[in-house]
Amino acid sequence: MRTRVKICGITRRQDAEFAIEMGADALGLVFYPSSPRAVTVAQAEQIVEGLAPFVAVVALFVDAKPEHVYLCLQSLPISVLQFHGDESPEYCEQFGMPYMKVIRMRDGINLAEMATRY
To answer: What is the distance between the alpha carbons of residues 110 and 103, in angstroms, rounded to a whole number?
Structure first.
């Protein structure tokens, strides 16, 4: 089994290039405005323009409006969506893209049940 490395929170083109040079398989772009690592669609376009096709682009969202996710999908070469909020399975699946769903651990979470849901 091969380990894959994703560097998340990329905000500058030179950081993306360095991460790839160091062997990153994927770059994570944060589209959550409250994050200090957040980028706009325009910034993300500059970061990923002309990157090698073997580098996956992961777009991270937290309870985003579907319209914003669709805008990102139309504007960027996104490989995988990553959801960090309270998104339902139906919400995650509506985009027709591979996705990762982060489950925040807290009292009462049944991890096996959550794994089955998503």
So the answer is: 10
How many other CB atoms are found less than 10 A from the CB of residue 59?
A: 26
Domains and CATH numbers, the chain: 6-117 (3.20.20.70)
Nearest C-alpha neighbor of 59 from the set 86, 115, 103, 98: 98
Residue written as token pair 């070469």? 77
* Strands laid side by side in the 99-101 sheet: 6-8, 26-30, 56-61, 80-83, 99-101
* Percent of the chain predicted with pLDDT > 90: 81
The tens digit of pLDDT for each residue in 25-45 reads: 999 999 999 999 999 999 999
Between CA 38 and CA 34 the distance in angstroms is: 7
Read off φ and ψ for residue 46, nearest 5 degrees.
-70, -35
Residue found under tokens 């995650």 = 92
Dihedral angle sign, alpha carbons of residues 85, 87, 89, 94: negative
Please name which of 19, 17, 38, 42 lies closest in space to residue 29, comparing C-alpha atoms: 38
